Amino acid sequence: MKISQGKRDPPFGAVPPADSAGLVKQQSVTFDEPDHVLRLESGDTLSPITVAYETYGTLSPKRDNAVMVCHALSGDAHAAGYHGTGESEKPGWWDILIGPGKPLDTERYFVISSNFLGSCYGTTGPTSINPDTSQSYGLSFPFFTITDMVEVQRWLLDHLGVDRLLAVLGGSMGGMQALQWAISYPDRVAGTIPIATTARMSAQGIAFNDVGRQAILSDSKFLAGKYRDDDPPSTGLALARMIGHITYLSEDSMNRKFGRRFVNGNRKSFSFSKDFQVESYLHYQGDKFVQRFDANTYLYISRAMDYFDLVADHGSLENAFSGCRSSFLVISFTTDWLFPPSQSREIVRALRRVGKDVSYCNMESDQGHDSFLLPGHRMGDLVAGFLRRLSEENRS
Known about the structure:
Layout: E1 2-4, E2 27-31, E3 38-39, E4 45-46, E5 49-56, E6 66-70, E7 98-99, E8 104-105, E9 110-114, E10 129-130, E11 135-136, H1 146-160, E12 167-171, H2 173-184, E13 191-195, H3 203-217, H4 234-248, H5 251-257, H6 277-292, H7 295-307, H8 310-314, H9 317-322, E14 327-333, H10 341-353, E15 358-363, H11 379-395
Helix pairs in contact: 1-2, 3-4, 3-7, 4-6
């Protein structure tokens, strides 16, 4: 097993806010022993596997304060704090939730954020080097599922010496992982917090994912997945992101942000260039995504989301949840039309039918699916209260 402590950028100016997790560094571990060959749901095997992760806070002497956060499709292991103090530094993707005094209080909890299997941000995925060919996997990377991601996260917990999680939580695809954790390892999870997610990808969600994939696959620069690093299928990947980004917003939030405002005053160009501000915004998001993400990775991860179906895997949601031993806090948002509240209520009803301890809140928000990443609601208060309860129950 190889362990890398990563490299932290030297501070050179600004100081992180007092409620920040501060300067943090990404770490990684490579599982390359014979007993760490991952047997994937697709039937393939994968080894070695490197996992990129970050931790915040301190593991208690009893090792009973660990909380795992699971990120969504385009996220990474950097969930909180800063990698450096340069002006361009940005906090982690869930910095509003993680830090001293925040809902995931790093003075109380040991927070773990791992980059999931198949990503392009440090954990083994299509951009990694295949040891058999000494070239990147590309489309030779095996298909994987949410269950496979959780299995790799379990390896990481074993490596960190954490036998049982106080809680596992995540939004969107991260919520799928949280649900799978409660099912795959019921004895290792005290609390589960699935947020803005679903127990099975809907036909609509699969449809959006497929349109995104087809945009990538039909890009002339895709070259059967063997595109050059310096000349990727940027048009297709940007279009995939633009399509996805529409589903992350809501009608209200788009109207508030952009309305029908033009890019250049009230002047119409009478062309197909970017006349409206909403068009300009989507193109900006697409272009920005191309700078930081990989096309092959997008194909595989979106497919893993499509295959997530607890009903098909277990016969019914009740069967899926019957062996769970954790308490649940299920959170949805009123304007989320990618994973609408009805899909969270389906989870809650199934949990209650099999007698599980479950709390549910459908939070008012006009910000759509991405609400869980944004301030302006009381999701953090709910999470904090749930974690305090779990901690007290764990001590008793």
